[in-house]
């Protein structure tokens, strides 16, 4: 068993295919496939279920890959410790953000790290908050900017960015456009435009529905805030997003939702209390609160 075999297997698990893993690693796909098969033969186990449509970890593969990540992290830590002693910051820094994030300090920080620490292999992906937290916890990501509703996650380190009330967004000619607020119960009578489950604003809305034992008609479930804005502006439904998300939306009317509990939080999260030098370098570039 060799370290590069573990790295190849982890890359396949993270990207979901041998082709994407090869692109990520900048090696030939045939090399990735051959080394993963060799690893499986040496272990006497099948790590991946393979088909023409997907590549998926087997149950035992999930357990093996957890240990592989731990082993690779330990090896990487040796190099990072040595580099830190020489005043350098190196290593892989995998950052995840909610889709369509508009928080400029993150992009400023990424640019600063890219410029000041060329030895850091910095990568950025988007996703739903739920998926980002899952990837953070299993080691697939090192730092995320994600949202949640309700209690602050307790199993990761958090730096709060903003606590955000929900708002509704409607076309300028909508009957609610000049309202001071909208009651949550009024949302039952309209077609809603929302982000998918696993996002902060949707989790907050679902919490309201569960608390009040009502069902909302999410007719338009879209992946990015810009879709919410465009559809609401054309009068096809009522959008529900966080207030910060809707900042600067000029072609729609933005009306607060009259429920102080209907809110989501956005924050920076990372694992443990002793982050890697690369994570510390990125955190140092981000606002404290």
* Count of DSSP-assigned helices: 9
Q: Stretches where pLDDT falls below 50 for ≥5 residues?
A: none
The biggest beta sheet reads:
9 strands, mixed
Overall 3D form: elongated
CATH homologous superfamily assignment of the domain at 164-264: Periplasmic binding protein-like II
- CATH fold type of the domain at 164-264: D-Maltodextrin-Binding Protein, domain 2
Reading off the top of the CATH hierarchy, the class of the domain at 164-264 is best stated as: Alpha Beta
Determine the structural class based on helices, strands and strand pairing.
alpha/beta
> What proportion of the residues is helical, as a percent range?
40-55%
CATH architecture of the domain at 164-264: 3-Layer(aba) Sandwich
Mean pLDDT: 88
Strand proportion, as a percent range, falls in 15-25%
Description:
The protein is an alpha/beta fold and 289 residues long. Among the domains are: 1-88, Arc Repressor Mutant, subunit A, CATH 1.10.10; 164-264, Periplasmic binding protein-like II (D-Maltodextrin-Binding Protein, domain 2). 40% of the residues lie in helices and 24% in strands. It is built from 9 helices and 11 strands. It has helices at 3-15, 18-25, 29-43, 59-85, 104-116, 129-137, 200-212, 225-233, 277-285; strands spanning 48-50, 55-57, 91-98, 120-127, 143-149, 157-170, 191-194, 217-221, 238-242, 253-256, 263-270. The strands form 2 sheets. Strands 3, 4, 5, 6, 7, 8, 9, 10 and 11 form a 9-stranded mixed β-sheet that branches. A two-stranded antiparallel sheet has the order 1-2. Strand 3, helix 5 and strand 4 (120-127) form a beta-alpha-beta unit. Helix 1 (3-15) crosses helix 2 (18-25), helix 2 packs across helix 3 and helix 5 (104-116) crosses helix 9 (277-285). The longest helix is centred in the first third of the chain and has 27 residues, at 59-85. The mean pLDDT is 88. InterPro entries: LysR_HTH_N, LysR_subst-bd, WH-like_DNA-bd_sf, WH_DNA-bd_sf. GO terms for molecular function: DNA binding; DNA-binding transcription factor activity. Keywords: DNA-binding, Transcription, Transcription regulation. Residues 1-58 form the HTH lysR-type domain. This is DNA-binding transcriptional regulator, LysR family.
């Amino acid at each position: 068993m060799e370290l590069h075999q573990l790295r190849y297997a982890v890359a396949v698990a993270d990207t979901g295919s041998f082709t994407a893993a090869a692109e990520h690693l900048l090696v030939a796909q045939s090399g990735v496939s051959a080394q993963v098969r060799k690893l499986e033969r040496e272990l006497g186990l099948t790590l991946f279920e393979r088909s023409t449509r997907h590549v998926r970890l087997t149950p035992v593969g999930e357990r093996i890959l957890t240990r592989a990540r731990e082993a690779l992290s330990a090896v990487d830590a040796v190099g990072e410790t040595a580099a830190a002693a020489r005043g350098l910051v190196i290593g892989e820094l995998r950052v995840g953000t909610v889709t369509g994030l508009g928080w400029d300090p993150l992009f400023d920080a990424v640019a600063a790290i890219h410029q000041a620490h060329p030895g850091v292999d910095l990568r950025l992906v988007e996703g739903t908050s739920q998926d980002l937290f899952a990837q953070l916890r299993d080691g697939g990501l090192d730092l995320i900017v994600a949202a949640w509703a309700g209690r602050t996650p307790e199993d990761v380190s958090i730096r709060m960015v903003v606590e955000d009330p929900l708002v509704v967004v409607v076309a300028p000619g909508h009957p609610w456009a000049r309202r001071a607020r909208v009651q949550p119960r009024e949302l039952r009578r309209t077609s809603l435009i929302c982000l998918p489950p696993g996002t902060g604003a949707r989790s907050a809305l679902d919490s309201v529905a569960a608390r009040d034992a009502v069902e909302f008609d999410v007719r338009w479930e879209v992946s990015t805030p810009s879709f919410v804005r465009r559809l609401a502006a054309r009068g096809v439904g009522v959008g529900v997003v966080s207030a910060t998300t809707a900042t600067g939306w000029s072609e729609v009317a933005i009306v607060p939702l009259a429920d102080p509990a209907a809110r989501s939080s956005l924050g920076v999260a990372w694992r443990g209390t002793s982050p890697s030098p690369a994570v510390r370098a990125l955190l140092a570039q981000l606002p404290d609160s």
